[in-house]
Amino acid sequence: MPHADSSYFGAGNGSKSEVYTQVLEQAQGLVYGQRNWVSNFSNVASLLWHAYAALPAPSSSVNWAGFYIRQDKFPVLGATPAASEDSSNDNKKPVLLLGPFQGRPACQEIRFGRGVCGTAAEKRETVVVPDVLNFPGHIACDASSRSEIVVPILSKGETVAIIDVDCAEPDGFDEEDKKYLEELAALLAESCDW
Residue 57 domain-assigned? Predict the structure, then answer.
């Protein structure tokens, strides 16, 4: 099957569980034989974007879907950026860098423990936020986001990346989203070389 066909979900055709099942099946096909996280995450970001567009509200109101990757997992391309002058313990925590995504431009880096993404990365557990306006320390990359789900991708017990999905409506995510996105995170952890 051509890769472009993987993103066809047909608007309104299927329950959330059916669409997520298709996402997982299509993701398995897209990552088959490819161990590079850049390639795999790029295709899966597109897959998620098209899947959410096919679902009824609030899922169809997803306005960002993508990944942040731990900085040391990026290929070394040249000189290391200069360290920040801030010598606090927070500055010594690992950093997530923006990876493949669909949506508006986003924050380039997030420290472990900061915002929803950094909290999920540091705790190594999924964080579902029904209303980001009520999440202390929320980092607003897009002011139209109202709810968020962040799922860590773990390799050997460490967070190597996170799946981040934002919705323009409150209460955009539930236990069903958590279940399937955690399955996707496990698939990506196993199918990429970290």
Answer: yes
Q: What is the rounded distance in angstroms from the CA atom of residue 155 to the CA atom of residue 138?
A: 26
Looking at the domain assignment, is residue 81 inside a domain? no
Domain around 47? 3-75+88-191
Q: 36: domain CATH number?
A: 3.30.450.40
Total number of domains in the chain: 1
pTM: 0.89
121 located within any domain: yes
Per-residue confidence in pLDDT tens, the chain, 194 aa: 456 665 667 655 678 999 999 999 999 999 999 999 999 999 999 999 999 998 888 889 999 999 999 999 997 766 555 444 445 566 789 999 999 999 999 999 999 999 999 999 999 999 999 999 999 988 888 889 999 999 999 999 999 999 999 999 999 999 999 999 999 999 999 999 99
For residue 141, CA distances in Å to 44, 54, 108 come to: 21, 24, 9
23: enclosing H helix or E strand: helix 16-31
